Amino acid sequence: MSAIGSLIFCTDCGNLLRESTGDENAILHCTVCGARNKDIIPQTIVSESKPSAFPSALRSKRSAVQTLSAEDRKTEAVTNHLCGKCGRTEMFFTTVQLRSADEGSTVFYRCVCGYKETSNN
User: Domain TFIIS-type spans what residues (predicted)?
Assistant: First the structure.
């Protein structure tokens, strides 16, 4: 009979035997080949590993995270839209998905004169 940790296998056919009783004098019978195997005291195996042994894709991307300043986050574009305050025909705009995915986005317009307006698509 051979054992790996607390699992006990038949020495003749390799079948997994019933669990150990802990008595060294007990005999375990194989249900496949009928061989008689001596019971052994189960052994506990403890293994440890370092986190670096199992690299994580998320952990490796941690170094790729960048900190953006307010200037970096400016994503306004220019479009032909009439300003309601000064009459200028070009305004800056940005879009944001504020509602659920099956609804349109919200467009924020900003003029150089300081006027702001929003529109739902």
Answer: 79-118
Model confidence, pTM: 0.41
| Both structure tokens of 77 | 């574009």
Query: What are the structural domain ranges in the chain?
Result: 1-44, 74-120
118 known ligand binder: no
Is 86 annotated to bind a ligand? Reply is: yes
Does the structure show a pLDDT above 80 at 75?
no
Question: Shortest CA distance to 19 belongs to which of 3, 36, 34?
Answer: 3
What is the share, in percent, of the chain residues with pLDDT greater than 70?
82
Q: Which of 4-13, 32-41, 57-66, 105-114 has the lowest mean pLDDT?
A: 57-66
> Is residue 4's pLDDT more than 90?
no
* Residue type, position 12, single letter: D
Residue 111 annotated as binding site = yes
Domain spanning 74-120, CATH class? mainly beta
Rounded Cα distance, 8 and 45, in Å:
14
- Residue carrying the six token digits 């006990």: 8
